[in-house]
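Memo to structure team: turn this sequence into structure tokens by end of day. - J.P.
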Amino acid sequence: MKTIIFYLTMLCVVSFALANKAESQNMKANTGGGSPDPQLSQKDNDYLDRQSAVFLDSVQAILAKYPPVLKEGKERGYAKLLLDAVFHEKFAAFRKSAQDFYHAQNGKLIQELEGLKVSSGARVWKVYDMGFIVRTSSVTMAFDLVSGITSGSKEFALSAGELVRIVKQCDLLFISHKHADHAEKAVAELFLQAGKPVISPAQVWPQDSIFSRILHPKPIAEKVHQIKLAGNRTLEVICYPGHQGKSIDNNVSLVTTPDGITVAHTGDELNEGDFMIDYDWMDQVAKHHKVDILMPNAWTMDILRVTKGFNPKLVLPGHELELGHTVWDRLPYWGDDAYLELTYKQLKASKYPVVALIWGESIKYIP
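Reply from structure team:
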């Protein structure tokens, strides 16, 4: 009997020791130190990698079947929700599936740019953040073109080779303001080296040697600037004196092409709090111009009022999923309007046609 009790006691001791060892190993496996998120274990990170890949495969399948249209169905809405889920993880830009998705989308954009001619109207591509490319029969314009390096991941950002191919297809670059997710010096340098104009506010790189090579039209409401391009082409440009709050000068560019298409890009225009002076000119734009396409930042405080001021035929919002922002401040496609106090939902329910493009996508505009 004593022998049996002894063996049972030893069995309990060994089992307890093994259980403690297993629990210790399990705790150790979940204490962090994995990559790319050091607060998670490697197994946790690996799971998020697999989930990201599955979600983004689904997104690509949906987008291939349901391209951008004026009245999009629920399928594209589901794709955008999956994008929100993937890219609202702090380290999303460091996950290979996310990098592959971004490069694949912009790879399609580059192929389209290199092969597509526009005979009438305009074709508009979304690159990243507030980056848009607009092509008409007479000109191809880039607005706030950046690589995505503000995500913090070199592997996520467009490569030098990809940027060279994009710049080769464009005639000039507009930069709205000095923030790095809108103004990237390496991109501007590519335009200048190719003899193509770059237009920006004077706050962009004022202490750098590149400054003297950039055009700085005076931002005055309704003052028309003539921008000369190669091939004896001329653009009519108005740089409205916009702002992002009180301290950041932000050009709101209104451009009329030689073939008569007028587009407006707002950069990070923001009337906020007691600083509302930009509405003085913004509410009047449509009285002076017939605007075809408006590209506003979707997070601006009253996007519906901004849109009414321009009264465009097509609205293409931007600035969704800027990965350089903290998670809560990466504007999701679902809007987060209540928290951010936006009027985006009201805009989408209004008379204005609104199409939210995803990186690399394009849409045809017919006047």
